[in-house]
Amino acid sequence: MRLNCNINGSQYSLVVNSDKPLSLILKEQIITFGENSQCLGASCGNCIVLINGNAALSCLVPAFKINGASILTFEGFQKTRFCHDIERAYSDVGNQPCPQCYASKTIIIESILNKVDKENQNRVSGFQFGAGSNSDMNHVSGANTNEQAARSRIGTGSISSELITREMALSSCQCIETAELEKIINLAYKYRSRRRARRS
Ligand code: FES
After folding, report:
1. Residues 63 and 134 both lie in one domain
2. Around Cβ 98, how many Cβ atoms within 10 Å?
3. Does position 141 have pLDDT exceeding 80, yes or no?
4. Which atom of ligand 1 is nearest to the CA of 34?
5. Does residue 173's CB lie within 6 angstroms of at least one atom of ligand 1?
6. 46 shares a domain with 93
7. Is 46 near ligand 1, meaning CB less than 6 Å away?
8. Is ligand 1 within 6 A of the CB of residue 49?
9. 27-36, 72-81, 144-153, range with greatest mean pLDDT
10. 34: left (phi over 0), alpha (psi -120 to 50) or beta
């Protein structure tokens, strides 16, 4: 099949078997990809990438599922300012994943932050919908106040432990306790929210 996808910001058009695992495609296209990932069978958890913003084990994703997708490996993610939020949180908490799973866990954290962002955006658009459906200007301004309140709450609550545990299950390495990961993830989200607030 012809596979069109974006990898780390560059567009690729490749001819591959439709069931070829993404991890092998990435190893062929990106020399530095997956130095720690060798199992090819969901055991090591070191081949994790972001596919359209969601973490996935690339050895389990066949080519036909990523046609048109946007893929970010740790090598690509490291060059973004989003990675800096997570690295800053590692440093401030004084803990980080071991060298073996550092790349994968960092990618999973980004996936968690993306999911929380999406949830918050849905919540804010819920308020916007409320405003748009009301013709009375007083009510509209009241709804806008609610929307502002919703926006200001974003980044201040803590991220659900259930979401963190579920996403972290992709990585089998137990080098860092869940409680520490929770601190890191919440801090990274706070930094990201503050940076966005400064920009807007
Ligand atoms: S290569 Fe080990 S889990 Fe994918």
Report:
1. no
2. 11
3. no
4. 1
5. no
6. no
7. yes
8. no
9. 72-81
10. left
- Please write the tens of the pLDDT for every residue from 127-138: 555 554 444 444
Answer yes or no: is the C-beta of 21 below 6 A from any ligand 1 atom.
Answer: no
Cβ count within 10 A of residue 112: 22
For residue 138, the model assigns a pLDDT of 45
Question: What digits encode the pLDDT tens for the residues 83-107?
Answer: 999 999 999 999 999 999 999 999 9
Would you say the CB of residue 111 lies under 6 angstroms from ligand 1? no
Backbone angles phi, psi at 71, to 5 degrees: -115, 135
Say whether both 194 and 99 belong to one domain.
yes
Q: Do residue 29 and residue 68 come from a single domain?
A: yes
* Rounded CA separation 36/112 (Å): 22
Pocket mutation for ligand 1, best pick of 59, 100, 101 (most atoms within 8 Å of C-beta): 59
Q: Which of 29, 46, 77 is the last residue of a domain?
A: 77
Domain extent at residue 152: 81-199
- DSSP assignment of 122-137 equals HHHHHHHHHHHT---H
* pLDDT (0 to 100) of residue 77: 96
Domain match, 61 and 113 both: no
Q: What's the count of helices (H) and strands (E) in the chain, helices before strands?
A: 7, 5
CATH number of the domain encompassing residue 71: 3.10.20.30
When comparing pLDDT for 37 and 19, which is higher? 19
The residue among 32 and 169 whose pLDDT is bigger is: 169
- How many independent structural domains does the chain possess? 2
Predicted pLDDT of residue 128: 59
Same domain membership, residue 191 and residue 117: yes
Single residue among 13, 47, 77 that ends a domain in this structure: 77
Q: Is the CB of 45 under 6 A from ligand 1?
A: yes
